[in-house]
Structure formats: structure tokens, C-alpha cells
Amino acid sequence: MKQLDDYRDKKVVVLGLAKSGVQVAKVLHQAGASVIVNDRKEREQCPEASELEALGISVICGGHPDDLIDPGVALLVKNPGIPYSVPPVRKALELEIPIVTEVEVAYHLCEAPIIGITGSNGKTTTTTWVGKLLESAGLSPIVAGNIGTPLSEAAAEATPDNWMVVELSSFQLKGTEEFRPRIACLLNIAETHLDYHGGMDDYISSKARLFVNQTADDTAVLNWDDPVCRNLVPYIKARIIPFSMTETLREGVYLSTPYAPGSQDSDDDEGDVGRTIIYTDGEGFTHEIIRVENIGLPGRFNVDNALAACAIAIAAGVAPDQLEGALSSFRSVEHRLEFVAELQGISYYNNSKATNSKATNMALTSFKEPIILIAGGLDRGSDYEDLIPSMQGRVKAVVLIGETKEKIANAAAKAGLKDIILVDNGKDAAATLTSAVRKASELAESGDIVLLSPACASWDMFPSFEVRGSIFKEAVHNL
């Protein structure tokens, strides 16, 4: 991609309003481009349109005009969630017009060094945690990207004294060309978003774009326990800092007593007691950072997130002995194994962000108490039988909603569960989830956990996982 000033007086199309589309349109307009913003929603559903038009930016709502893309378009910036199969994007591809996401534009605007964090699970928690670790060490992080604040908005305010800590999705990364983070982290890879990517190859290559433009002056943080992450090593030019829960590393961040590869259960009744997160630089320096039982977040997968966050923070210049405080004081991010309430001895947790089976398996293995699981959502073709091992011996009942309720019910039956409740209040999604919470509370006893961890995306019933989680929390507080 050219520098932003190179688009002065050039025609640029921004596809999709939303927060990132609005901000990137403003950035390109300020750079002197002739910007047209297009959204298929009707005008009354696009309240941002008037604000942009007041700035002199053209806005077209209500569909994609046939003549939107022509040879005179110098750049197409698309909302990350818009598939490459929609007509304007297909036409841009045919005309060989550069197609990027807002992340690429923001990169050329940003003066701060960038930390880019991606993965199938744990992105938001790790990104937020890294921000806290850098802040507690006296650095000046700005947390942005897929986590909430559009990167281009944050980039406009950043200075070289900041660190830009950015959560990135595969959708965003697929639309990058020159994007180069100073520190890049790939947490893990699970089978997800295949309806968008069309297969794992495109999904993995989109994630791997995080490393494509890095040089030997940059750092790549990789999950050494994930074979897909490890297979990328020959293609990475940056210095690599691995993290592992299952290996003692010569250089990197690891556990004093590694877990057995593939294990989910604790080695003993004391669980993580006795394990310590350790950093070693490969040249003789080794430091014990924190005992695992003192980490502020529950769950084996949050130990993994903590390892990654430590490696990233150390790569950014934080001394290992400065990490313990923020690791122990950090609490859950909303919708990610979020404690909601304890009512009559029953604890309620909102894990609405669990939009695939791997995330739900991680949540189920985080508790020793019996679980009543609320799950179900958008059907992407999985049979959910990978949930069976985590259900056995942990889940005492399931309450199921959404398109996948019958599939997950079949998996639960194979796991030996007897209490399998299907809830469907027709088109009223909020009423369905509220009924599911009531059913779960009726099945629960003092000492149990009621856990919303859907293993599915929300879009069959709710506009987002955030809405789904908020309705769950409201239903719990109204019990």
C-alpha cells in the first residue's frame, strides 16, 4: 500500500460503515483522498452517514451500486467481516485494485511501535493483560484494534513513546499488505471461521500475515505447544520467543513443572500448586515470575495466556521481576469466563465469547465443581463430539439453545448425561436464553456452577456474543 498522502485527490472506496469504517473514512479524507463510503444497510440504519457527509465525504446506503467500483478507484478499504465474495470486492479483485482492511491504513498512520496479537482463542484476554503489564511497568500502552477502539482512531493519537497493543482477527489480517508489528504473537489455531475463509489453509495463511513483513529487528512470540504455530518457524525472519506449558525451553517462557502434552486434568488434587512461570533468555539468565496458583484468572487456558503475555511484555522491555503484580491482580474480561453472581450457593459464569468447541472445552476444564452448561448457537457444521471428554465427569446437565441444540444434545447423550434440556421460545432470542438460565438454576444445587459457554457463534439468535452475554447476565440478576 502507498503512504496515505499518495491518495490525495485519488478515489478511495470504504466498504462498510461500523466504527472502523467511519474512522478510516475520516483518516483518508484528512489525507486528501476523495472518499466514498458504501453500506448495504438502509439509510435509517446508518446514523453515522450524516456525520461523514458533513465533512464532505460521500455516503451511499441501501445496497452496492453496480458502478461503485471502476478502474478509477485507487484503493478499496473493506470492513473485515465483509466476505471477498460480495460483488464490489470481486470487481476490485478483477480490476487488480488493492483491497485492505482498516488495520493496514492505521499502520501507515501510527507512530508508535505495534504489538499485534492474534489466535483462535484468548486474544482479548491476552491483549488486555499485556496492556496491564506494560502499564504497571511504567510504559504507555494504548490497547486497541478488534478489542473495541478502532486501530486508526488510536493510531491518530499515538506517539513514539507509546506501545500500541492490538488485538487482530484473521479477517483483519487477511486484508494487510505492509503491516509490520514490532512484536507479533500467535496464541493458537483452532478450526473456526471456515465459512468465511473456505478452509483451514486460508485461515492459517491469514493469521500468518502477522509475521510476513517482520525482520530480524522484530520479535515473534509463538505457542510452542501448537503444531500449526510451530510449523511457521521456517517462514519467520524475526527473533522468536516461544512459550510452552509442556516443555522446558532453552529460551522462552515456560512452567517449572510442565503439563503432559494434551492433558487437561491436573496432575494431583492440588491442581497447579507448585508450578511456576519461568523466563530464560537462553544465555544463562533465568527468572521465576509467579507461582501459577497466584495468577488472577482461573483456568488452564489462562495459564497459557499468562505465558504469552509475559513473553510479549519481556519482548517490549519489561523486566521479568516487574510482572508479578499485574499477573496476580488482573481479573476477567467481560464475556470471557466472567464471574456474574453467586445465588444460593450456585456460581454463575458468563463465557459467551466461547464461539467454538475448543474455547468451551477450555472453560469446562477450568472448574472442579459440577457444571450445568448452557450452550448452542449458529450451526457451522460441527458434530460437537469433541466436547464429550470434557463433559464426562464435569457436566451434570446441559441446557441447549440455538441451531445446534440437537447436535450438542447428541454429544451430551454420548457423554452419558441424563439431564439434557432443549429450550426454544420461537423468535424471541432473549426469552429463550432467559428461560435457559431459569432451567439451569432449577437443575443446579449449592456448590454447582452454571456456565454459559456456547461453543458456537451467536448470529443465529443474537447480533453479537456481547449481546448474548449481556442477556445472560441480566437473566441471572433477575433470578
TrEMBL record:
Record: residues binding ATP: G119, S120, N121, G122, K123, T124, T125
GO molecular function, one term: UDP-N-acetylmuramoylalanine-D-glutamate ligase activity
GO biological process: cell division; cell wall organization; peptidoglycan biosynthetic process; regulation of cell shape
Top-level taxonomic group: Bacteria
Localization: Cytoplasm
Mur ligase central domain: residues covered: 117-313
EC number of this enzyme: 6.3.2.9
Reactions mediated catalytically: UDP-N-acetyl-alpha-D-muramoyl-L-alanine + D-glutamate + ATP = UDP-N-acetyl-alpha-D-muramoyl-L-alanyl-D-glutamate + ADP + phosphate + H(+)
Keywords carried by this UniProt record: ATP-binding, Cell cycle, Cell division, Cell shape, Cell wall biogenesis/degradation, Cytoplasm, Ligase, Nucleotide-binding, Peptidoglycan synthesis
Gene3D superfamilies registered for this protein in UniProt: Mur ligase, C-terminal domain (3.90.190.20), Mur-like, catalytic domain (3.40.1190.10), NAD(P)-binding Rossmann-like Domain (3.40.50.720)
Predominant localisation class: cytoplasm
Domain Mur ligase C-terminal: 335-456
GO terms under cellular component: cytoplasm
Pfam families: Mur_ligase_C (PF02875), Mur_ligase_M (PF08245), MurD-like_N (PF21799)
Pathway as given in its UniProt record: Cell wall biogenesis; peptidoglycan biosynthesis
Protein family according to the UniProt entry: Belongs to the MurCDEF family.
Protein role: Cell wall formation. Catalyzes the addition of glutamate to the nucleotide precursor UDP-N-acetylmuramoyl-L-alanine (UMA).
Annotated protein name in UniProt: UDP-N-acetylmuramoylalanine--D-glutamate ligase
Gene: murD
